[in-house]
């Protein structure tokens, strides 16, 4: 059995639990059947107003992902995503993977969804099997981030390798020009200068990618590939927005340090241009 990592700060060895927020009963039934075939548990809500109260209940503690319709009858899925990401009393769920379902095929709408905190999207009509594959890809990427050995050299020091196999949830420590960083896989915390960074899933993955190769310049396309197993390269410009958001968060910790450097015409890196 593959062990997936939930976003409730523990390793999930039982079946994944999905929250589906979708007002169309036909779509909901199709997804419920597909998830049942995978051996997954699914909780279905057909309106936006029920989501936050559900997330405060004990049954939400084992959630593995949220599938969220953008166009709900009583609210906007994009705004609801932001609420989930920033509601302090459900902090354990703020990094949970969120996949949008949207009838809007316009590129601007897809970019907005990713910038608002979504991890992926499926445009209607879609195949339930594709959606399942996208969820598995998100979980697999999270698992790899928590397992992979870290051995990186920067210009002024070496990265400390704290675990060659991080299934135990051992913290990973990075030392580079900007200081000491720690990543805790079990609760997805990235800490810089002893302060936990408030980052979205995508932002955290981008920063971890840069930390693992501080001397490498990553193009937008490379960073997009690093955060998605199904990258749409028409959305590569969303990386700029994520970098801007990361820089804003880093500035709240120490505005005097320029952590992420822009290499014009090439991309982004932790090393200066």
Describe the structure in your own words.
Helix 6 (201-212) packs across helix 8 (238-253). A 5-stranded parallel β-sheet has the order 4-3-5-8-9, with helices on both faces. A 4-stranded antiparallel β-sheet has the order 10-11-12-13, with helices on one face. It has 8 helices and 15 strands. Strand 6 and strand 7 (75-76) form a beta hairpin. With 273 residues, it is α/β, with parallel strands linked by helices. The protein folds into 2 domains: 4-144, Rossmann fold (3-Layer(aba) Sandwich); 148-269, Winged helix-like DNA-binding domain superfamily/Winged helix DNA-binding domain (Arc Repressor Mutant, subunit A), CATH 1.10.10.10.
Number of domains: 2
- Radius of gyration, in angstroms, nearest whole number: 19 Å
The CATH architecture of the largest domain would be 3-Layer(aba) Sandwich
CATH class term of the largest domain = Alpha Beta
Neighbour order of strands in the largest sheet: 4-3-5-8-9
* Biggest sheet statistics: 5 strands, parallel
Report strand %: 15-25%
Q: Which blocks of ≥5 consecutive residues have pLDDT under 50?
A: 1-13, 148-168
Order of helices and strands: EEEHEHEEEHEHEHEEEEHHHEE
Roughly what is the average pLDDT, rounded to an integer?
79
User: What is the overall number of helices?
Assistant: 8
CATH topology of the largest domain: Rossmann fold
Number of strand elements: 15
Helix percentage range = 25-40%
What is the terminal separation in angstroms?
45 Å
Helices and strands: which structural class?
Answer: alpha/beta
Oligomer: single chain
Q: Find the CATH superfamily of the largest domain.
A: Response regulator
- So what's the overall shape? globular
């Amino acid at each position: 059995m593959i062990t997936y990592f939930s976003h409730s700060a523990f390793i999930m060895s039982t079946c994944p639990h999905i929250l589906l927020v979708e007002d169309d009963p036909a779509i909901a039934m199709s997804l419920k059947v597909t998830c049942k075939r995978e051996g997954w548990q699914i909780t279905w809500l057909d309106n936006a107003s029920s989501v936050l109260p559900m997330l405060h209940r004990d049954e939400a503690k084992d959630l593995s992902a949220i599938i969220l319709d953008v166009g709900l009858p009583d609210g906007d899925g994009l705004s609801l995503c932001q609420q989930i990401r920033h509601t302090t009393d459900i902090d354990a769920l703020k990094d949970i993977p969120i996949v949008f379902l949207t009838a809007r095929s316009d590129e601007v709408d897809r970019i907005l969804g990713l910038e608002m905190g979504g991890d992926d999207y499926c445009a209607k009509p879609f195949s339930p099997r594709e959606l399942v594959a996208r969820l598995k890809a998100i979980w697999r990427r999270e698992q790899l981030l928590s397992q992979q050995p870290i051995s990186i050299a920067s210009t002024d020091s070496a990265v400390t390798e704290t675990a060659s196999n991080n299934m135990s949830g051992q913290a990973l420590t990075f030392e580079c020009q900007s200081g000491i960083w720690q990543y805790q896989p079990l609760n997805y915390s990235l800490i810089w200068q002893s302060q936990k960074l408030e980052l979205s899933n995508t932002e955290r993955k981008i920063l971890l990618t840069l930390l693992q190769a501080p001397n490498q310049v990553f193009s937008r396309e490379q960073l997009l590939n690093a955060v998605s197993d199904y990258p749409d390269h028409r959305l590569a410009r969303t990386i700029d927005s994520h970098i801007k958001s990361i820089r804003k968060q880093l500035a709240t910790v120490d505005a005097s340090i320029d952590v992420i450097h822009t290499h014009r015409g090439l991309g982004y890196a932790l090393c200066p241009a």
